[in-house]
Design goal:
The protein contains 20 helices and 20 strands. It is an alpha/beta fold. A six-stranded mixed beta sheet has the order 5-6-7-3-8-9, with helices on both faces. Helix 3 runs antiparallel to helix 4, helix 12 packs across helix 13 and helix 18 runs antiparallel to helix 20. The chain is globular and about 105 Å long.
Amino acid sequence: MQLKLQNAAVELSGEVILENVNIEINDGAKIAVVGRNGCGKTTLLRLISGEIPNAKRPDTVFSVSGKPVIGVLSQITFSDNSLPMVLEIRSAYKEILDMKDRLAFLLEKMNESENEIYIEEYTALLERFTNAGGFYFEKEYEAAIKQFGFSESDKYKPLSDFSGGQRTKIAFLKLLLSKPDILLLDEPTNHLDIKAVTWLEEYIRDYKKAVVIVSHDRMFLDRTVNTVYEIEHGKTTKYTGGYTEFTVQKKALREQQAKEYEAYKKETERLENLVERFRYKATKASMAQSKIKALERMETVESPEAYDNRTFKGHFEPRLESVKDVLILNELKIGFLEPLATIDLKIQKGQRVGVIGGNGLGKSTLLKTIVGNLAALSGDIRIGANVEIGYFDQQMAQYTSHDTLLDDFQNTFRGIGNFEARSALAAFNFTGEDVFKTVDMLSGGERVRLALCKIFKRQPNFLILDEPTNHMDMIGKETLEDILSEYTGTLLFVSHDRYFVKKLASRLVVFEDDTVKTYEYGYQEYADKKAAEKADTISPAHKTTTDNGTEQKPKAKKGYTTPAKEKAKCERALNKCERTIEELEKHIDDLKCDLTKEENISDYLKLGEINEQLEKFEAELLIEMENWENLSTKLSSMQN
């Protein structure tokens, strides 16, 4: 156990934000913290990190084993903005880099003399270096940089050249790769594309230390955590398993609590009736007394608290029926000064098309171009007759106004009465005095609800939605999924929420590999096919072929028959491996120098060729490092 909170509480400005907080973080734990927006999830992370104090209460326990390093994104800073991004990322491996320098120093000393002190320190340090991932850390951060959408040339840009969002991603990478004892992640998948989220899932699953995650991404939680703490009504409840298991267990627990409460009520009523019936009869007085004592001994069973499932609701049918061909895109080039992509697409009435892919490739640009907010660079957009579009833009979460919600809604729909306006707003959870709040006072999630309320009021037959679930909690996402599942019109949407895409999309438009591809099936089949392709891909270094090109397993070689010959063979193999490693490292260093040469920086074709060679040599180096480690271990066992 590293950290334990028992009956902890948080008070801010005299107001109790959290109470009865119970959470235990053990080595290697993968924990999710879930709950409604505003329930205190981020506050709990701040309490764990020590950013805010625990309220002093008599029964509170806040115990920490040792001095665990707690990693939080908000605590990551850049000391030198002129530093290239790759050096800032490498600084996360300070301990490994220090060990690498010390090993080089010791190796030099060992070559000068056969001092046993140097040999012993080198041997012990090499083991620590290996266990810490010293032979793989460069491959690890190179893969992470690539998966987070940074190019090879980005690695050598100074930090000052990156946008605020990019700097946040760099800080996030540095936090992950620094490997703190307890890693606290608050909505880590926000603004990451599916490729980066998939990499992050694998990284967290393989992470040896503890992770605590606040997230509304249900599929991400299912694939990463094994424990869920829910915050509801200010209290925490622990469940074992991922998010799906949590929902099943929570329902079962509430049903069990309800049964126990009903049984308790029936038994108390029975005993009270018996007491009332016989307490004044002399012959039954002793029995009445026994029932009174039985009542006093009964352990009180509280009624289960109601679910906090407040959400919006809605069901609407399109005002008009569209023609069969709702949208036709013919060689549509989208972008700004330069084209981002070229798309051919036909969407027919009733189809549900999900758009997925990496950040910055043109997904939102495609939707903006279709609705006319951006001009097409070339190509045709044909929208069918009687098609009425309802468009949701991510920027609607930033919409501001000094008007009240009621006035804002009535200004949008001229002539609508108070009753009709308040009924429409109430369906989206703006009830009572809420309608007299000004729009400026709303949270991002509330502004999204207001925008959807206006869109649905118009009853369009073609919904075009750009990341509609951003700023929504899980119940909000599930509600929107249900509404859109029942919607009989046509749907085109962009989303990074794979669960949302999986539930709604029957077709996919995927921005990938510098192209736009259309798949005539949903997300699950797409993910299964991609996983199968990845499984079928075997590194060329691990397979051989016959003269006719068919794959063939390597033939086993005959071993030597004496220990001396076996040792000599192992030593020769080790020496050869070390020479190969030196050659590969020299090739890699030369190629990295080529990347920074002035004549290559703007030659993207040349940079692509260099990067291909670099990836090839780095893959070979990783294999040789593994080989060297195995041979070293084998030779060491022979010498003992």
